[in-house]
Amino acid sequence: MDCVFCKIISGEIPSNKVYEDSDILAFRDISPVAPTHILVIPKRHIASAAEITHSDGELIGKIFAKIADIARAEGVGNGFRVVSNCGETAGQTVFHLHFHIIGGRELSRSLG
Ligand code: 5GP
Ligand code: ZN
């Protein structure tokens, strides 16, 4: 499949990994918008948040628990943002579900 993040998971495209297990990969965004900017993705290809179903509940819970762990480990545990752009109109450019962890600077209150 022609998916950049699947290629990162397979190792075909190198990445700066922060965490990996059998279900999840976290790596640093290639174009960070803040001192901490990490992407957390499921290894299974899910196109976007719009494709999540109830049967993905355990996986999504695991991802969010890991997001909290990573934020603490990065030293931004007391203030960070989790973002998932869903669909082109919302700014999604890579169509493999990912959660941005953004922190390490003052973040604007605006969400759009
Ligand atoms: P989106 O715009 O879909 O919400 O987020 C995609 C993110 O993936 C962007 O922040 C972009 O910088 C990042 N990205 C795209 N290609 C690569 C890559 O090859 N490696 C890494 N580490 N990040 C990437
Ligand atoms: Zn993919």
Strand content: 15-25%
Radius of gyration: 14 Å
Q: What portion of residues is helical?
A: 10-25%
**Principal-axis shape:** globular
Ligand set: guanosine-5'-monophosphate, zinc ion
* Total number of beta strands: 5
CA distance, first residue to last residue = 31 Å
Query: By helix and strand content, what is the structural category?
Result: alpha+beta
Number of helices: 2
- Write the H/E string, N to C: HEEEHEE
Which strand order spans the largest sheet, edge to edge or round the barrel?
1-2-3-5-4
Instruction: Return the average pLDDT rounded to an integer.
Output: 97
Low-confidence stretches: none
The main pleated sheet reads as:
5 strands, antiparallel
Oligomer: single chain
Secondary structure topology:
Blueprint: H1 4-10, E1 17-20, E2 24-28, E3 36-42, H2 57-73, E4 80-83, E5 99-103
Antiparallel strand pairs: 1-2, 2-3, 3-5, 4-5
This protein binds guanosine-5'-monophosphate and zinc ion.
